[in-house]
Amino acid sequence: xxxxxxxxxxxxxxxxxxxxxxxxxxxxxxxxxxxxxxxxxxxxxxxxxxxxxxxxxxxxxxxxxxxxxxxxxxxxxxxxxxxxxxxxxxxxxxxxxxxxxxxxxxxxxxxxxxxxxxxxxxxxxxxxxxxxxxxxxxxxxxxxxxxxxxxxxxxxxxxxxxxxxxxxxxxxxxxxxxxxxxxxxxxxxxxxxxxxxxxxxxxxxxxxxxxxxxxxxxxxxxxxxxxxxxxxxxxxxxxxxxxxxxxxxxxxxxxxxxxxxxxxxxxxxxxxxxxxxxxxxxxxxxxxxxxxxx
Length: 294
Description:
This protein is of the alpha+beta class. The protein folds into two domains: 2-201, no CATH class; 252-283. Helix content is 33%, strand content 27%. It has two helices and 17 strands. It has helices at 184-247, 253-285; strands at 2-4, 7-9, 12-14, 21-23, 29-32, 37-38, 51-54, 66-68, 79-88, 93-98, 104-106, 117-121, 126-128, 130-133, 137-148, 155-157, 161-167. The chain starts with a strand and ends in a 9-residue tail after the last helix. It comes from Microbacterium esteraromaticum. Keywords: Membrane, Transmembrane, Transmembrane helix. The chain crosses the membrane at residues 254-278. Residues 220-241 are annotated as: Disordered.
């Protein structure tokens, strides 16, 4: 079921010919293979002792019918009741789920296990169930849905549709004669609005994710800068610590004297070496006397 712009539509979503292909219910045959037949359904189980079973867990060889109301989320009309008002077929149609301990639980609001009845989803959901058709043959289920806005209490209703099941190896006959979709035009408009709403939500989520990533990157850069500043400050403190140790208020006079004395010795040494070099150069540069007497 989908809802948008104050309108609601009930259709059929299938993954057989593609991924999540939307079709009008009256254009699709729901085929229940002969292999679905079970002749030994345990006593006390809805549909016992025999019937065509479509299990709660998916069997790739069988159809897996369920319902979905996620496409109502953006409309506000999220409390959905799917009403199966009529069953035209050779037998009964059972539908239920299982509890945590294997017990059977009804999904219909009247507490029973067979149609007619109403399925309610108070919030957007995707749900599967176990189905049992008591006899082979062609079944037509007449269905419409009502969606309610929990904030305002207002409701919108879909047109009624017919879902056709061919159960077992039986001729289809003229099951589809006279069937047509009542609101295909409305469905096209609603589906386009839902698609756009979904695209907008995806774009908003991507933008938000990009903004969060940018903020996280900026925060990480700031942390690295702060770490570098901290290391530089610690280095300066270490240098100042050495000077403080030398020239601080509590320094030992002998240490200062030794440092100063050592400095004087170094300077004196430099001066002495310089004088020696000068004398040496003078000696080497003196002229040689070549006029001695004979």
